Amino acid sequence: MSETVKYLLDETRIPRDWYNIVADLPRGPEPVLHPGTLQPIGPSDLEPLFPMALIAQEVATERHIEIPGPVRDVYRQWRPTPLFRARRLERALDTPAHIYYKYEGVSPAGSHKPNTAVAQAFYNAEAGVKRLTTETGAGQWGSSLAYAGALFGLDVQVFMVRVSFDQKPYRRALMEAWGAECIPSPSPRTNSGRQILATHPDSSGSLGIAISEAVEVAAQNDDTKYALGSVLNHVLLHQTIIGQEAMEQMAMAGEAPDIIVGCTGGGSNFAGIAFPFIGAALRAGSSIKVVACEPAACPSLTRGTYAYDFGDTGHLTPLVKMHTLGSAFVPPGFHAGGLRYHGMAPLVSLVADLGLLEARAYTQNACFAAGLQFARTEGILPAPEANHAVRGAIDEALRCKEEGVGRTILFNLCGHGHFDMQAYIDYGAGRLEDREYDPALLQAALEALPAVA
């Protein structure tokens, strides 16, 4: 069995609880502030947007939160997901490193996003909600919520960032196949969208703009709630089943990771793989190297400011303390649409502020090169977002080669690239540009951060 390449758990090993890293951090997250008063908000302030069960999870401090039975029943369709040893990639790199990857592309939507979509749909259905609104960048979150909404009888309305709406028609088709409505953002459907279009009629959109539109619709309709695919504490909580399963599977392989790598946009898949391992290290009084890989064109961890900011461009959401490029920042239209968010999850930002992770920014051509090398050795074509983690893992493996040290590397392959073939066509034809943000626009967005005492 020395050449084992995959490590599988049966359905009985699906975690029964989500893991909450707040219980193990040396300090808790800063309070969420009301956008009008700048004072800490209470549950009633969030109730127009979320059911109370999710609000309770958002502020929870206990280490484990039980996964409801109906959610685990749905998870059984694809969980536990496989852990692979990337032996062919190791040989191609001629590295002494051992490389493992947790593969979330086996879900119905092809990514990690259903882990929280199913949970959010369940809690909303339990609360009597009839419709969910949301935003999506690359479309993986929108398609995941469309899938979950179909399972629990919820109508789903998705505001998709315009550049991704145009780049990725098959993601839109998948959402519609599951019964959701997909709208390019900014749109004339909302006040937020109309204001953007009045000033920038050709706007490529951003996740911040799409969030404003979805929040506006939810806040104005009593039968509608808002669902978010990343950033918030309860979303990251739901993703921790990834890391919990990976801990058992690494034990099956007889190894423990020295290095964990994940791509970061809003932070959910990164938290899913990394938080359980970080928490275990904190409880043991040890440390583990954790690398967060983000796009150079939207570098919230490496170039952002750790400050209070709005989660959306229209300033309809509460303020949270996070690494941010400013809510007015609109990144260029690079292909990893799921990583085009101006802020990083507050909990990931706190982990970074505590010095528990290392952040790196990569250009998209370097990431696509890594993705193709991975596909040609391991057979799986990663999503553009996941390519950032592949790039980071390869770089760590090459560093092991240079240093002559064998380390164990684990990364989260958060989704496949089957709906992203135009991006690979563009890369192969040499049409994929390393898009750069405008430094002046970034500076202006940072200068416009809200003044919070």
From TrEMBL:
It is an enzyme of class 4 (lyase). The keyword Lyase applies. Its EC number is 4.2.1.20. GO terms for cellular component: cytoplasm. It comes from the Bacteria. One of its GO terms (molecular function) is tryptophan synthase activity. NCBIfam families: PRK12391.1 (NF009057), trpB_rel (TIGR01415). Tetramer of two alpha and two beta chains. Belongs to the TrpB family. This is Tryptophan synthase beta chain. It comes from Acidisphaera rubrifaciens HS-AP3. The gene is trpB.
